[in-house]
Amino acid sequence: MSIDRTSATVTTWSLEQTSPADLRPAAGAPGEVRIVRAEVPSPEFSRFLYTAVGGDVHWTDRLPLSYTRWYELLSRPGTETWVAYERGTPAGFIELEAQPEGTVEIAYFGLLPAFRGRRIGGHLLSYGTARAWDLSDRWPGREPTKRVWLHTCSKDGPHALANYERRGFTLFDTKVAQEPETNPPGPWPGAHA
User: Fold this and answer.
1) Which residues is 90 bridged to in the sheet?
2) 3-state DSSP assignment of residue 128
3) Which of 1, 55, 93, 98 has the highest CB neighbour number within 10 Å of its CB?
4) Is the pLDDT assigned to residue 182 strictly greater than 90?
């Protein structure tokens, strides 16, 4: 017996900056937005951010991870989570991951649905990218950053690719693949209202 599964074409774009001079910062966010580093590894808080930001855009890769695995990922030297708050409420986050040879990956970046479209994303991406470039200042023994990179895909928000390009990231790879079509894991109905 065969199972008929619907698939979708997913395009993944990989982008990079190879110099701090590549960063084109966005204007500051409107209102009272602060960006703070979450210095204490907290799987509970990071999982909240991950599901709240990625629930409607198919972020699922970390959902099956155990508490211990989350903690291990967050505790790696050179891994940082920066959180944007609007008037004390988490609005989004950016997770940086130090890699060999002076490379830093923006592993995750995004806003909770209620905070999208309000110029917070460009500000958070600018700030987080600057923190990727000066990451070695906070991690003694880490070589200076030579490259910051990330990937985004057609399942992410419709403005994701353009936001990265506006901040000075340039495309270095594009892949197209068929993936099983799935429903996003959340958020619950009405969360976008």
Assistant:
1) 85
2) helix
3) 93
4) no
Give backbone dihedrals phi and psi of 50, rounded to 5 degrees, phi first: -60, -50
Q: At what angle do helices 43-54 and 67-75 cross, to 10 degrees?
A: 100
Which two tokens mark 33? 């937005």
Quick one: which of 104, 168, 170, 159 has its CA closest to 131?
A: 104
Cα separation, 111 vs 53, in Å, equals 5
Instruction: Convert the pLDDT of each residue in 39-94 to its tens digit.
Output: 999 999 999 999 999 888 888 889 899 999 999 999 999 999 999 999 999 999 99
CA gap 61, 130 in Å, rounded: 26
Burial 93-115 (b: 16+ CB within 10 A, else e): bbbbbbeeeebbbbbbbbbbbeb
For the chain, give the number of residues. 193
Q: Which residues on adjacent β-strands are paired with residue 185? A: none
Residue 155: band (very low, low, confident or very high) from pLDDT cuts 50, 70, 90: confident
Output the average pLDDT for the chain.
90
DSSP 7-68: EEEEEEEEEEESSGGG--PPPPPSSSEEEEE--S--HHHHHHHHHHHHTTTT--TTTT--HH
pTM for this predicted structure: 0.90
Q: Are 149 and 105 in contact (CB under 8 A)?
A: yes
Do the strands 89-99 and 103-111 form a parallel or antiparallel pair, or are they unpaired?
Answer: antiparallel
Q: Which residue has the higher pLDDT, 189 or 138?
A: 138
